[in-house]
Amino acid sequence: MSIFKDLFKKIIRNRKPDEDTVVVKGKPKPKYYGTVVPSLNFNASSDASSLQSAIEKDEVDKDVIIAVLVKRSNEQRQKIKVVYEASTGKSLEKALKSALRSDLEDVSLLCSWIPLTLMPTCSGRPQRDGPRVPKELEEVIKRRPAVTSPRALLALLKAQKDESVEIDNDLARKDAEILFEAGENTKGTDVSVFIDILSKRSGPQLIKTFQHYAAVSDISLPKALDLELKGDIEECLIDIVKCSWNKAAVFAEKLHLAMKGHGTCEDTLIRVMVSRSEVDLKKIIAEYRAMYDVSLQEAILMDTKGHYESVLLGLCGAH
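RE: above sequence
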């Protein structure tokens, strides 16, 4: 697949996982790379009142809505939402939906919800904080003919991925050997082994596993996946590998593809910008410039307009 020739060449570039952590009380902790931070002078009642006034005006004040939703953290947005609904007796989502239209409506609604990390291949944490995968959904996934990799999808939805930044070198070596035996060194492929290891190990742990894999095989693990697996299961597991190596570059590519050519994939653009704004959007912005020789902000300016453009730039940290 050409995906390896182009994408991995960009994503594996200058990867330094140690730069992603800081030591706090003797333990490594992930750095904060979000562009949205909590407002220092936050007042949920004042913001809820501002939103109500902006929404109920004869001509909706979109600038106020953008300022409130973009310049508040998700935790603060949820408090505003509670106060708004208690004081007005109305759903904030429904009020925004009736007041706004098109792309600005979509991004504003997503900002007002509790955002999930919309790529379960990249992180299991938000899914673990939410409800377990309903049994009915499991059955639908298993029965759907279009889903040729239900085991991989269910493993990711159940979000058993370890989020630790600590690395077990012995486990990485053992996992590399197990993956080799399950794929290259046997007739056929034991897909369940690939799903089990790639869906459960943390990003830093998988990086170490990839390094050990290179010692037992003549080819890289991504190339092995390309040779051994086919269809959407291959794409699913490849995404895990890519995200483990350089998650920000993967999202940078998704944003680039969403704005590439004629038209824009607004759904992808909005979901990535909102869901990563309090996670690693600063890193995604840096990777975007390095990969495409243009800033994400410039790309947004060229591809969008009006208040929709303003809210996306606001999520980038531009004011």
